[in-house]
Amino acid sequence: MSSEALRIGFVPEHFSTPLHFAQKHYGLHATLIPFPSGTGHMVTAIRAGEIDIGIGLTEGWIAGLGKEGFEGDGGYRLVGTYVDTPLCWAISTGAQRSEITSVASLKGSKIGVSRIGSGSYVMGFVLADQQGWLADKTHFSDTVVLHNFENLRNAVNSGEADFFMWEHFTSKKYYDSGEIRRVGEIYTPWSSWKIVASTKLTKSGDARVQTLFEKLDQGIKHFNEHQDEAAEYISTELGYTEPDAREWLKTVKFPAHTEGVKDEVVRNCVSVLRKAGVLVEGKGLDVDAMVVKV
């Protein structure tokens, strides 16, 4: 069992660069499985036994464990921290949607999300809470599930949805091309990426998880020390321009040690998600049960 390659779910965006380096340069023994549709899809996959590890957005993982009604033991636990900095979510609409002039004009509109429970879904509630729209229950007229970034872009141009939120640098080239238009931005009030392991792994104390942390730490160190290589990889393999890749490199901070999750980060995220109405106190897992030391 322990000699088998871990199946690691990840989002094939610029943030995945240290993971790529861990495998390319430091022998990470894993099958990397891309999930371009994001964290919500990985929640489904890890519960279905399709992946062993997931690297995704903090709010998506925590929302999945904090909601009522999940079956069994929830399927996964938080075990590590992948990115220390918050995520900048760009708020986008269609290129010709002249009636949408500001974030304030989005009240009562149709929000496009990749999946229910995904980061794009959860951050809609955080946005509504920050804007003071939750009190009168008219924050959004509809939530339109569109599965992936391409569908989201098409939907705001067709009118199927009015706006959506996605990571800034991934969205930027579509602003530059004129396909979609930027309305504003919102930052996560927490560090943005976490590592989860299936409960099958956490219960067995599988040694491969420790090895994963060691290899990721090496990949991050390599990333920090070889910024030119990182920019080249991001711009040639992941579809970003080199100027955008270099600009992103200035904004992101990965931890020196990926093992472990700070208790206050999880508590803060749960608190904000409860305030925003995503989670309900007394439902789902307690904060202390969401994190496991492997």
UniProtKB/TrEMBL annotation:
Keywords from the UniProt entry: Signal
Gene3D superfamilies, sorted: Periplasmic binding protein-like II
Limits of the Ca3427-like PBP domain: 89-186
Main location as per UniProt: periplasm
Keyword Oxidoreductase: no
Subcellular location: Periplasm
A GO cellular-component term linked to this record: periplasmic space
PANTHER family membership: ALIPHATIC SULFONATES-BINDING PROTEIN-RELATED, TAURINE-BINDING PERIPLASMIC PROTEIN
Family the UniProt entry places it in: Belongs to the bacterial solute-binding protein SsuA/TauA family.
Protein name: Ca3427-like PBP 2 domain-containing protein
Organism: Metarhizium acridum (strain CQMa 102)
